[in-house]
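Usage

Read records sequentially. Each one opens with the input sequence:
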Amino acid sequence: MDIEQLQAFLAVVKSKNFTRSAESLHVAQSTVTARIKTLEELMGTTLLIRNNKHVALTPAGVSFLPYAERMISLYAESIEALKLQEKYSERFVIGGPTSAWMYIFGQQLREFQHNHPAIACELLTHSSENTLEKVIDGIIHVGITYMKPRHPRLAVHHIIEDDYVFVARQPFGRKITMDDLHRSNFVLNDWGKPFMDWFYHEMGERYMPAFKINQTTIVMKRCLEENWFTLIPKSIVKSYVENKELHILEHELTWQPPKHNVYAATLKIIGNSSLAASISELLASLYGAR
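and closes with the structure output:
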């Protein structure tokens, strides 16, 4: 198996057409066909169903697709790492949800970059699941996640145990009630399965929020600029509350929300002593964000 075969496979999956795939790869259509055929022979199974009208993945192709994507990702990362060796002493990759690096650990990241100008830093923003996958693959050195990692190869660092609070640009002058959660200015942000299971259990399965989203930056922008309010981890809005840009709203609900936990994940075994030192330094600064 080689990279060109994987690239041909992914190109066909994306375009669902051998001719367009060949054009995107700048090769003849017969070359794409030959690469796919060789790949299927190596895998011992058919990965694509094709006829004159369409191309589709077989069940085996569906199973193979995420592995092909990961192999291509690892290849691209390795090429980038070799290029950076010429300019920097080390390449350091961090990852996790955008909200973590924008609202919780932004200052720690800026300080790390400032203190290590010879280290090439790269930030990859992914969901918690994708972040952990890339830490396991060795692509990300320190990954932030809102779910507790349980893979045997990962070292887990519990950074923050947080509470959810209601916030808005202006105080309400009264306590939040259940009726307020049915109003058009309440936005429900998806904080993961434990949170959503709890929330809908409290509100009832038929509850329909006026606006639901899974992008914290949009929620924050709307709450800062408009008359919206939301339920959000305290660590994310800490600086905005301190600067009085947002206000924590009291409520009269008898809820006990689950805690919002923030973890850092690293590989348990790190061979490069210089990299291990950088990881330890960054982790220490993350703990300082509590």
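Summary fields computed downstream for this record:
- The two ends are 47 Å apart (CA to CA).
- Residues 59-84 form the longest helix (26 residues).
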